[in-house]
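JOB MANIFEST
job_type = single_chain_structure
chain_count = 1
residues = 393
[input]
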Amino acid sequence: MKDVIVLGCDGYIGHALTLRLLEGGYRVIGIDDYQRRENVKEMDSFSAIEIESGEFRHSKFKRIFGEDNFHFLSISISDNPGELEYYLENAVKNELAGVINLAQQPSAPFSFKSQMHAVETTDNNIIGTLNVLFWMKEHAPDSHLIQIGSMGEYDHSAGTDIPEGTFNLEYKGRLATEVIFPRRPGSFYHASKVASTYHIDCACRWWGLTATDIMQGVVYGNWTPEIEKYGSPTRLDSDECFGTVVNRFTVQAVIGVPMTIYGEGAQKRGYIAINDSIQCLMLALEYVPRKGTYRTWNQLDTANSVGEIALIVSNAATKYGIKTAQERIPTPRVEKTESFHYKVYTEKLRQLGFEPTRTMSEEIEYVITKLAGPTASELFPLRDVVMPEITWK
């Protein structure tokens, strides 16, 4: 049996990943400070799909998978490096297969809520990553860091193809090899992810650490076989900060609110279902790069415009007798909403065996079956939180 450290194990991706790891025979050391739950409450919102309390989840893990196979500590990795070091030193008992860092404030709008929120996002994401890197340097130099980055680190509308990781750059007749593809973040949140990318690359070059830095598209949905098997859903948010567009549009459709399309709705992004996001993380854990390597890949399945997503949600809702509407509103972000060139390369995952398991339509329909019906009226308070009020300007 191998150990895996999951930082952010109570989050949207973290909970689903923890279930997959436990089901796969790993011993999981989970760390979370429940900040995502608190941040959603701050938005006067709640998970549209009801989730268990953290305490209940963790006792359930121990009951199902064995008392010693799941260990949990509630701690902020950015605020308490000494406590983190002490806990991990005593918690890791077997070969450490990997450290998976999902302990991030993941919302671009939340980082624009105020100066305090921008600072908190920066502090949490950058300092947290640095604390993990220093811990690995001292205590787990031969292990593998898997870090969730974001496709938002790139300039989506730059008009050029987006390669994976490094590329060759020719300038004034001279060729530079293995240059990290330029970053141009779209928010304070994404800027914090860019900083982490460079810190991880430095740690691999300076200290010989091994890392996979994942530029992930927007994750959506709520189905994995483990969630279904154990009746332990992960969260599904719809507020303006934490409700990513597919999930937000789906909830808007169910509660009878027009889907809010920003601007022209032609802006494209990369998307991936949560089950396939977990599949990719497991591939990263299984296929470890050579020691001292900084590896990065683009993790997405499809590229869709916001308008296309609204149409997919509408078609899915129609199957369940739900009528939908659309409302085009000025984008609260600083972004192009008209059509632009968007091509992202994703060869690395395909070479490792990644095959999508869930289409966007299937995942939307699954979520609708969980939300629609006699209890749909309980979601009506979410009508007050889906409209954007936070702006970049």
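[summary]
The first strand starts at residue 3 and ends at 7.
Residues 265 and 307 are 5 Å apart (CA to CA).
exit_status = 0
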